[in-house]
Every structure is written in structure tokens, then in C-alpha cells.
Design a protein that fits this description.
Blueprint lengths: L1 H72 L6 H57 L5 E2 L6 E2 L15
Antiparallel strand pairs: 1-2
Helix pairs in contact: 1-2
Length: 166
């Protein structure tokens, strides 16, 4: 009877360790998913800003083209200040696109770093779990194929149903 109690205590102890490990891994996965979601939202926002800024750039080019066209047609006099201002707006818009692309790249780099960190944390947790199992030194029990009862590792007959163990 004491042997059965030891077996059940061992089962409970291992079950608690497995449950704690699963809970820890689930928490890590949830935190990683939350971070990735935030990063994805941020990346999409930046991408939308890039698209809008490119649209503005196209409008600036079109405006400059209209001015040049009107000058060439002779409808307006050439005004270097107007042309320089249009070119400066285009340059600022191009700079803004470059800044946004750098921001998007940074978000991607942060995501890669956090993914590596999460992988490392998971590997550490699995390593700790393996170390705990090694430190436990509890022998594996034999499970009866007939009644699923736990038995001592060296048992030849099931303590619950009395049938021979394989």
C-alpha cells in the first residue's frame, strides 16, 4: 500500500511540474503573440503612411509638371522661386518617405530580435524542465495495459488488477 502511495505521489508531483511548465510556456507564447500583434499593427500603420506620402509625391510631381507645361506653352512667365519651392516640396516628401522606410525597417528588426528572444526563453524553460526531471530521479512507472493503473518500474504484476505486466 505504501508503494502505491509513493507511485501516486510521484505521479502528482510530475503532473504539477508538467502543468507549471505548460502554463509558463503558454504565458510566453501569449506575450510573444501580443508583441507580434503590436509590431504588425505598427508596421501596417507605417506602410499606410508611406503609401499616402507617395501619393502626395505624385501630386507634387504633377503640380510641377503643370507649372512647367504652362511655362512652355507661354501661358505663365517662368518664376524660379515657384519652381524651387515645388522642387523643395518634392525633396521633403522624398525625405519623409525615406524616414518612414527606416522606421518600418526598425520595426522589422525589433520583431526579429524579439522572436529570437522568445525562442531563447522557450529553450531555457525546456532546459530547466529537463534539469528538473533529471534532478527528480523518480523512476518511471509501468502503466498497466489492462486497467491503466500505475505500478513500480520493476513490478511484474499489476497492483490494481493482478494481471501480468509486459
Amino acid at each position: 500500500m505504501a508503494e502505491r502511495r509513493e507511485i501516486w505521489d510521484s505521479i502528482i508531483k510530475r503532473s504539477q511540474k508538467v502543468a507549471a511548465s505548460v502554463a509558463k510556456q503558454a504565458q510566453t507564447i501569449a506575450q510573444t503573440a501580443q508583441k507580434k500583434t503590436v509590431q504588425t499593427v505598427d508596421a501596417v500603420k507605417v506602410e499606410n503612411q508611406i503609401k499616402k506620402t507617395r501619393q502626395i509625391l505624385q501630386e507634387e510631381y504633377a503640380m510641377l509638371g503643370q507649372v512647367v507645361y504652362q511655362i512652355e506653352k507661354g501661358n505663365v512667365n517662368r518664376d524660379d522661386d515657384v519652381l524651387k519651392a515645388a522642387c523643395k516640396r518634392i525633396e521633403r516628401t522624398l525625405e519623409r518617405i525615406a524616414e518612414l522606410q527606416e522606421e518600418k525597417q526598425k520595426i522589422g528588426n525589433d520583431e526579429a530580435a524579439e522572436t529570437a528572444e522568445a525562442t531563447e526563453e522557450t529553450e531555457e524553460a525546456e532546459s530547466e524542465e529537463a534539469d528538473d526531471e533529471d534532478a527528480d530521479n523518480a523512476p518511471d512507472m509501468k502503466i498497466c495495459p489492462h486497467c491503466n493503473a500505475g505500478n513500480a518500474p520493476d513490478a511484474k504484476v499489476c497492483v490494481a488488477c493482478g494481471k501480468e505486466l509486459e
